[in-house]
Amino acid sequence: MYLTQALHRAVQQHPERIAVRFGNRQRTFRQLVDRVARLAGALQKLSMQTGDRVAMLSLNSDRYLEYQMAVPWGGGVLNPCNIRWSAAEILYSLNDSGSSILLVDETFRPLVEQFRRDSSSLREVVYCGDGDAPAGMHGYEALLAETEPVPDVVRRGEDLAGIFYTGGTTGFPKGVMLSHTNLCSSGLAIRAEGLATPGGTYLHAAPMFHLADMGLAVPHWIEGNTHAIIPAFNPELVLDTLERDRVTHLLLVPTMIQMLVDHPAMKKPRDLGALQTIAYGASPMSEAVLERAMAALPGVGFVQAYGMTELSPLATVNPAYYHTAEGRKLGKLRSAGRASFCTEVSIVDAQGCEVPRGTVGEVVVRGPNVMQGYWNKPELTAQAVRDGWMHTGDGAWMDDDGFIFIADRLKDMIISGGENIYSAETENAVAQHPAVSACAVIGIPSEEWGETVHAVVVCKPGETVSADALIAHCKSLIAGYKCPRSVEFRDVLPLSGAGKVLKTKLREPFWQGRERAVA
């Protein structure tokens, strides 16, 4: 199995089908393959050899899509840079991976001087924005124009396809090594789950540097489908693109879904009849937001996909059926689903033994989707992958039908007065208040209880609610010890590049000066 295999198939079977749409540009598969082969040749002329890492720091674009295929086509290894990171964090990923070539767009061009000065590995920079290349950089379109297409090197199987850095929420970022088999097996599983159908169009609305987007795009490559792209998530632009490009499949994280369904543009009459499926994942979504989304987009199938970068990225799927009125009666709506194809999932205790059904333990996953390891971090790899099982660090329980229910990140578990409190449950209660737009729940230090539950809340525009009223609301839904003891109101929550709430940032002010960040 290899990533570029899908391109060969597509250009053989339907060369004139539209492969990509971005703004006013669109290209067929014949045109796309030609550009991919030229870019691969250009990177080789810039001294990319087999196994060399090539980085990209850019907003979403058609050129990002070409980069994702051209690097393996030419024998290199992908290193998509997190656009939400600081310059220092990006520089760390460049140096840690040993990336020798960087593609950069206009948004991030001002960082190039620092990278050139401080990087130990960077040799060449390609400007992939529109217009002429700045001094000292190669122009993307000029490189393609002056380079002949080259044959596909055909890296495959266990050959390294990419290094995908984790969010850096704790300590130094870790580079997740994924092979062609890892990515293709996960893509085939996603296709088998029905998240890509023949003749469809997939919208890249989530950031393309993140494996959630690339992973969900792989089955659409396999199908030879069209890729519609927007530079970055914007609710109105998403709706316009869904309508204009007749998009069939979309991936959004819960925060994006909430922003989409609450946006005023959602109230305008639109033809979204082509939209078949919205896959969501990356973080828990409150039932209140999910209910609003399903009401706003009737006829669209909502599918929860649970996984992580280390799993290429899919582990489990909760199909659209269990989101329907009939399916919800089976009590699976809050589930992250069951093990996907070619994947085993188990819930284990600290000794690695499977726990009884209904008991919270750690989610572990085994299959061809499990990463090769962390780049240059063999000790961390050995801790994470044991006997072939990837230890996710997520707490969950499994029901008698094999559905798993995520309780929390184990490190996010709050222990108050000896009781284990899983923040996802409290967040779900808070989010059901009509004035609440978004929330995050953390544990903060308490001399009496060890930790107490603290809620950070964003209200809907024009709405207000008092802390006391919100706590009373929660007490009507969940046990008192699970309810917030304190409430903080903010305009926004801090988010990672993948759209996850950065709870480490929320905890920092409360735990500063202490030896541990938990009680």
Percentage of residues in strands: 25-35%
Global Rg: 23 Å
Helix content: 25-40%
CATH architecture of the largest domain: 3-Layer(aba) Sandwich
Q: Looking at CATH, which topology of the largest domain would you report?
A: Rossmann fold
Task: Provide the low-confidence segments as ranges.
Answer: none
Shape: globular
CATH superfamily of the largest domain: ANL, N-terminal domain
Main CATH class of the largest domain: Alpha Beta
Q: Which sheet architecture does the biggest sheet show?
A: 9 strands, mixed
- Specify the structural class: alpha/beta
Number of strands: 27
Number of domains: 2
Q: Largest sheet, order of strands side by side?
A: 2-1-11-10-12-13-14-15-16
Mean pLDDT equals 93
The tally of helices reads 16
Q: What distance separates the N and C termini?
A: 47 Å
Walk me through what this model shows.
- Helix 5 links the parallel strand 5 and strand 6.
- By secondary structure, this protein is α/β, with parallel strands linked by helices.
- The chain folds into 2 domains: 392 residues, Rossmann fold (3-Layer(aba) Sandwich); 96 residues, 2-Layer Sandwich (GMP Synthetase, Chain A, domain 3), CATH 3.30.300.
- It has a 9-stranded mixed beta sheet with strand order 2-1-11-10-12-13-14-15-16, with helices on both faces. It has a 5-stranded parallel beta sheet with strand order 4-3-5-6-7, sandwiched between helices. Strands 17, 18, 20, 21 and 22 form a 5-stranded antiparallel beta sheet that branches.
- It has 16 helices and 27 strands.
- It is globular, with a radius of gyration of 23 Å.
